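FYI - complex with guanosine-5'-monophosphate, inputs then prediction.
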Amino acid sequence: MKILLNQEELDAGVERLAREINETYGNRPLTIVGVLTGSFILMADLIRKLEMPLRVGVVQTSSYEGTERGALSINSEMMLDIAGRDVVLIDDIFDTGNTLQEVTQLMKSLGPNSLKSAVLLLKTGRQEVDWVPEFVAFDIPDEFVVGYGLDFNDEYRNLPFLACLEPADLPDTES
Ligand code: 5GP
Ligand code: MG
């Protein structure tokens, strides 16, 4: 496994995100909606650096099986009421952008006052949608990454750094 971003670098990136969000909203109340499961560590670190009155909710999506994309499902049962609120959607990574695009569409239909998104990572050159999140901590190359919340088959989320998963790390897929 190759380390792409160490703990110190991740912390500096989260600090940058927090500063931009604090500057954008000032003391206006904000609603954060984290996309589970990948954003839970970013969310925990980020919200403790935000200074405005804050409400925190989650929405769950899943789209990957291993490193292959499966069908996207969205579970919004645990999301807060966002009507009339300023909302920032938080996710771990913006890859094709399809996940956040679908979640954003769902959320817009609930009538927020404003809606922006923040991600830890943006994979360069992979986007299939015509927008990018307003707040991005790092641009990274097109490699499959794990750690700091991101998984491979539900493992590795607890790594305190971000690493590239290399072929030697993958389970034997011969059949
Ligand atoms: P998108 O819809 O933007 O293509 O993909 C977004 C979701 O796919 C992310 O929230 C994340 O769960 C997953 N994903 C995309 N790239 C990676 C990656 O390199 N590593 C991991 N662990 N998940 C990824
Ligand atoms: Mg995700």
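The helical segments are 7-25, 40-47, 98-108. The mean pLDDT is 92.
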